[in-house]
Amino acid sequence: MITLPGYEISAAIYEGLKTVVYRGHREQDRLPVVVKIHRADYPSPKDVAKFRREYEIGTTFDFDGVIKYYGMEKYGNAEALIEEDFGAVALREIIPPQGMDVLTFLRIAIQLAQALGEVHRKQIIHKDIKPRNIVINRETLVTKLIDFGISS
After folding, report:
1. pLDDT at residue 97 above 90?
2. What is residue 143's predicted lDDT score, i.e. its pLDDT?
3. DSSP string spanning 32-90?
4. CB 3.0-4.6 Å disulfide test: which of 26, 46, 93, 123 passes with 31?
């Protein structure tokens, strides 16, 4: 588990080739957060720039269809992205093998279409829409886009 001053980290929720994502909370106000860090102790300048671009693009949004970016914190030789945690999981984790019922599908699809519409109104192209970058709260079905690292 990682140590990040000001945050209590409770669990790893995703491990990719270049990043690890944790769930936790901010100590000062108990705000639930997701913390995304580089997997490498010495990330490449390109990977560091990708995090900064994700943060810069992510903070331009002010609507519910995109995860909120709370900040960047110094972590090791790079930075950690601090993002909203609304109890979601990746879309790929909730799609049952037999598919989903039509009403659930439509609720998710409508929210996703609205979010993409708002992103495009900001003249931003996500470039990485896939089930891992769409997160959904299982109980409320609130759906949001994440990971703007390669967006333009």
Report:
1. no
2. 97
3. EEEEEEESSSS--HHHHHHHHHHHHHHTT--STTBPPEEEEEEETTEEEEEEE--SEEE
4. 26
